[in-house]
Amino acid sequence: MHSDEFQKFLETISAECFPVLGKSITKINYVPIDLSESNLLLTDEDLSSTAKFTEFINNHLKTHKATVAYGGYLEQRNIYKRSAYFNVENAESRNIHLGIDLWCAAETPVYAPLDGTVDSFKNNTNHGDYGPTIILKHDINGVVFYTLYGHLSLESIAHLNVGQAFKKGTIIGAFGDASVNGDYPPHLHFQIIRDLQGFNGDYPGVCRKSDLEFYKFNCPNPELMLRW
């Protein structure tokens, strides 16, 4: 299926999707947030300190009287400079974000947007990584694709089994805090993946500029599946 065909497929099924953060948080409670390197309000000090980064997120929510701040697809970010996981010596750094982040309080429940089964799960413990992560496999009208949920709580993956089925609208996990989620303010990284390429419980959520065209194809805009 070509990229534009898959996008049209996602647009077609989007009306069927259950809100990833549930129906109790309505559209009026969401506000966009800019975490790109061009946002001069976000300083290097804010990014290097999890406490200051959390304060920045919370102030943004308070200012806009919102519960959830969202955004980040294909955003080029400076935050990854603080982690060796994204910066290998003598190699191009990874700094382009491939999912949508939903910034909200720790323990916020996460719901399955569509029927799916657990493809894999893992606690990705590198500094700046996903922490506890779940990948669901979806087969909708014969079209198979995956959704990834990163930065969850440890409890979210404690009792999972590969192949376990989740009905649309059921809770699959909850947000983790900075002690387990890769050292970030609490949030969910939500990503659509066409081909997992053999990854298990993990898939790149940040890419190099030189790889961007492939990942734009393999990881289309998650907002196509987000409902609120």
Quick overview of this protein structure:
The chain has 228 residues and is of the alpha+beta class. It has helices at residues 3-13, 44-48, 50-63, 154-158, 212-218, and strands at 30-32, 68-71, 96-97, 100-103, 109-111, 116-124, 131-140, 143-150, 165-166, 171-174, 187-193, 206-207. The chain has one domain (3-224): Glucose Permease (Domain IIA), CATH 2.70.70.10.
Protein architecture, described:
- The chain contains five helices and twelve strands.
- The protein has a single domain, classed as Glucose Permease (Domain IIA).
- The protein has an eight-stranded mixed β-sheet with strand order 1-2-4-11-8-7-6-9. Strands 3-12 form a two-stranded antiparallel sheet.
- The chain starts with a helix and ends in a 10-residue tail after the last helix.
- The longest helix is centred in the N-terminal third of the chain and has 14 residues, at 50-63.
- The chain is an alpha+beta fold.
